[in-house]
Amino acid sequence: MAPFEDDYVPTLKILLIGNSSVGKSALMLRFTNDMWAPEESSTTIGVDFKVKMVMVGGKPYKLTVWDTAGQERFRTLTKSYYRNAQAVLVVYDITNRATFEELPRWLKELEANTASDIVKVLVGNKLDKDSSRAVTTEEGEDMADRYNVGFLEASAKSNTHVKECFMEMVETIIETPTLWGQSTTGLLLPRGDDILELEAAREENGGLSLCQC
């Protein structure tokens, strides 16, 4: 039996949220394809996603990484994609203070649309532009402490702490029994049917192109 057969590989759903232009798509592309999405890329419309296989503890897992649009006009659309997510990266740009000041709105929306046991991590992106920093590391840590979420600073461009952002969440999901259901065969499965959701999203969004949003 192939180790990565869909019927036997647990699927985890990870969502990225935050303002437009903070680099959500760049983080997703760097993690899933080890590629850099240039700054001039077009903005995500609606929702995009990538799939990545990882090994944890010698076992395979399929990650579906969902990138949501940050513009206000897409808020109704993207709220539906919180369903069945097991982890969420809340991203801001350390060089743009306005994106940091919007975090309470994103974190409150996250709390309203997800279960209390979901894994949440605050990510200050664009660490490669540290000389242009508008938000201190201490401010990011204080925000994370206030909302009881994890915290990391990262750079999709220089590939700094990107893998850590995702893999620490994956390990936490695996260690959190309430984020999992049990199949009749005894195989651990995520809550909901994300494979069907992926196909529905593909049809609904018409093969959206990847971008930095």
Automatic annotation (TrEMBL):
It is found in: Endomembrane system. GO terms for cellular component: endomembrane system. SMART domains: RAB (SM00175), RAN (SM00176), RAS (SM00173), RHO (SM00174). It comes from the Eukaryota. Keywords: GTP-binding, Membrane, Nucleotide-binding. Gene3D superfamilies: P-loop containing nucleotide triphosphate hydrolases. InterPro entries: P-loop_NTPase, Rab, Small_GTP-bd, Small_GTPase. GO terms for molecular function: GTP binding; GTPase activity. Pfam families: Ras. This is Ras-related protein Rab-18. It comes from Saitoella complicata (strain BCRC 22490 / CBS 7301 / JCM 7358 / NBRC 10748 / NRRL Y-17804).
